[in-house]
Amino acid sequence: MVATVWLCPGQGAQKLGMGKDLAERFPAARETLAAIDAGVGFGLSRLMFEGPEQELTATHNAQPAILAHTAAVFAIIGPAVDGAAVAAAGHSLGEYSAYVTAGALTPTEAAALVRRRGELMHHAGTEHPGTMAAVLGLPTAEVEAACHEASRGGAVAVAANLNAPDQTVISGDPDAVAAAGEACRARGAKRVIPLKVSGAFHSSLMAPAANQLRLALERAPLRDPAFPVIANATAEPVREAARARRLLADQLTAPVRWVACMQRAAELAGDGARFIEIGPGTTLAGLLRRIAPGASVVSLGTADEVTGFLEAA
User: Fold this and answer.
1) Mean pLDDT of 73-99
2) Any catalytic annotation for residue 171?
3) Peptide linkage before 52 cis (omega within 30 of 0)
4) How many other CB atoms are there within 10 angstroms of residue 278's CB atom?
5) Judging by beta carbons within 10 Å of its beta carbon (0-12, 13-18, 19+), is residue 289 exposed, middle or buried?
6) Residue of 164, 169, 181, 124 whose CA lies nearest to 12
7) 3-state secondary structure string across 19-35
8) What are the beta bridge partners of residue 276?
9) Each residue of 46-55: pLDDT tens digit?
10) Cβ neighbours of residue 181 under 8 Å, at least 6 residues apart?
11) 128 has catalytic annotation
12) Residue partners of 215: CB distance under 8 A and separation at least 6
C-alpha cells in the first residue's frame, strides 16, 4: 500500500465555476456541497458556480468556497484511495480542510469556522488596513532581513508565507511592505508582486481577529485527528484537538512555514509516499516540486482529473 499525504489549498485558489463539474458528475460531491450550503446558511455552491466573481473573491466567501471544493473532492476520492493516509497539511485556511481529511471536523463544521475566520480577518483588515506582496527569486533569509529593515518606528513588515526556498510573501503595513519590497529588489529579487488581499494576513495586524477566532475554536466540536495534521505555525504534527485549537488561532498571526511543513510531512510519510492535492488549482503541487523535487504528487480539482485518478486506481 502507498502512504498518502493530503494537501489542501489556501486562499487565492478560488475561481468562478469551481466545483460545478464535480457536483454535476458525482453524487458525493453534490451532497457535500448541499450540506455545506445548509451549514453556512446561504447558497455558497451557487456563488461558487455562478458568481458574481467579485463576491466570490471576498475573504469571507473565498475561504469557505475553497474548503467546500476541497471537501467535495475528498468525499469522492477519500474512500477510493488505496493506502493509508499518514499525514495532511493545508496552506493557511487549507489547514482546516486538512482536519476534515483527518476526521477532526465535518465539512459543515469546518466551513462554518472558516466563514467566521474570513469575516474576522476582513474586519481586522478594515480596522487596520494592511497588504501583502509576493517576493520571487530571493532566499527567505534575505526577505526576512529586508522586512527587519522596513520595520522601524513601529511599522510592521514580516515574512508571512514561506512558500518555497525562493518564494516568500511579505505582510504588514502598506508603507512598510512597499519599503520591504524595494529592499528585496535591491537584494536581487526577480519580482515583487503586490497581492489583492483585504488585510495583512499572518502578521501581528491580525491579532484582533485571532483573539475572536480563539473563542470560535473553543466552541467548535473539534475531535482528535485520525492521523497527524502538520501545523502551519510550527511545521510539527498535531494529534490532539486541544493543540489544534491553539495552533489554528496562532496561525492568523504566525507565518505559514510551508517549506518546513512539506519537509516534515515527507519525513512522516517516508520513501515512496504519494502527495495528493485536493481542491482548486495546482499551486501546492508546484511548490512541493520545488521543495522536494523527487516527491510523487498529483493535483485533483476537476471532474476529469478525479475521473482519471479513479480509473487508474
Assistant:
1) 93
2) no
3) yes
4) 32
5) middle
6) 169
7) CHHHHHHCHHHHHHHHH
8) 6, 298
9) 999 999 999 9
10) 133, 135, 146, 170, 189, 192, 194
11) no
12) none
Question: What is the C-alpha separation between 57 and 100, in angstroms, rounded?
Answer: 22
- Residue 134 Cα to chain centre, angstroms: 16
Q: At what angle do helices 59-77 and 94-101 cross, to 10 degrees?
A: 30
Cα separation of 249 and 252, whole Å? 6
Q: How far apart are CA 76 and CA 310, in angstroms?
A: 9
Question: Is the backbone of residue 201 left (phi > 0), alpha (psi -120 to 50) or beta?
Answer: beta
Distance of CA 174 to the CA centre of its chain: 23
Are 255 and 157 contacting, i.e. CB atoms less than 8 angstroms apart? no
Residue recorded with cell 503586490 = 194
pTM of the full structure = 0.96
Q: Which residue out of 91, 202, 203, 299 is catalytically annotated? A: 202
Of 60, 91, 92, 203, which one is the catalytic site residue?
92
Segment 229-265, tens digit of pLDDT: 999 999 999 999 999 999 999 999 999 999 999 999 9
H-assigned helices in 131-282 = 140-150, 174-186, 207-219, 241-250, 258-269
As a whole number of angstroms, the distance between CA 302 and CA 309 comes to 11
User: CA 112, 28, 49, 12 torsion: positive or negative?
Assistant: positive
